Amino acid sequence: MNRQEFFRVLEEGFATLDIEERESLLADYEEHIQISMASGKTEEEALAHIGDPRHIVASYFEENRLDAALHGLDDENSRKRIQWKALFSTLWQIIILVLSALFILFSGIAIIVYIFNWISIGQVIVYQLFLCCVLIGIALLLSSLLTSTWRQFITRKGASQ
Questions:
Q1: pTM
Q2: What is d(CA 88, CA 91) in angstroms, rounded to the nearest whole number?
Q3: How many domains are contained in the chain?
Q4: In 125, 140, 154, 159, which residue has its Cα 20 to 30 A from 79's Cα atom?
Q5: Domain of 36, in residue numbers
Q6: Does one domain contain both 54 and 83?
Q7: Which residue, of 26, 46, 70, is where some domain finishes?
C-alpha cells in the first residue's frame, strides 16, 4: 500500500468527523510518516510501522466511543438525558405556575374576606392587616415569577414544536 492509498482509506474512514478534526488526524499521520522516513525508513516501512488504516480508523472510533461513554457523552444516553431534563424542567415550570397562581388566588380571597370582615365588624384587627400586607407582597413577587416562568414555558414550548 502506498501513501495515497493509505490516506484515501483514512479519509474515507474519518469522513464522518469534522473537517478540522479529520485534517488534524491526517496531518498527524503525515508527520509520523515523515519522521519515520527521516530516520531512514522507506515509505513502505513507515506505512507498515503505522499499521493498517482500517484498524487505525476502527480503533480511533472505538476509543472515542469508550471515552464518550466514560464521560457521559454517549449519543443515545445524552439524548435520553436531555429529553428527561427537558421533561422535568417543563413539569417543574408547570408546578411553579400552578402553585403561584393558587397562592395569588388565595391571597386575593384572603384580602377580600378581610375587607368584608372589616366592613361588617367595623374594626381593624392589626395582625390581619399585617397578614394581608404580607400576602400582597408575596403575591406581587409570585406574579413576577409567574410571568417570567410563563414566558420561558411558552418560549420552550414554541421552540420544541
A1: 0.42
A2: 5
A3: 2
A4: 154
A5: 3-70
A6: no
A7: 70
Alpha helices of 71-125 — where are they, by DSSP H?
Answer: 75-121
Residue that terminates a domain, selected from 54, 70, 86: 70
Residue type at 61 in one-letter notation: F
> What SS3 string covers 2-63?
CHHHHHHHHHHHCCCCCHHHHHHHHHHHHHHHHHHHHCCCCHHHHHHHHCCHHHHHHHHHHH
Whether 108 and 153 share a structural domain: yes
C-beta pairs of 153-159 under 8 Å, 24+ apart in sequence: 153/90, 153/93, 153/94, 153/97, 156/86, 156/89, 156/90, 156/93, 157/90
Q: Are residues 16 and 45 in the same domain?
A: yes
What are the pLDDT tens digits along the chain (161 aa)?
A: 788 999 999 998 888 888 888 899 999 999 999 998 999 999 889 898 889 999 998 888 888 765 555 444 455 666 677 778 878 877 887 887 788 778 878 877 888 888 888 788 877 777 777 887 888 888 777 777 777 777 776 776 555 55
d(CA 12, CA 58): 12
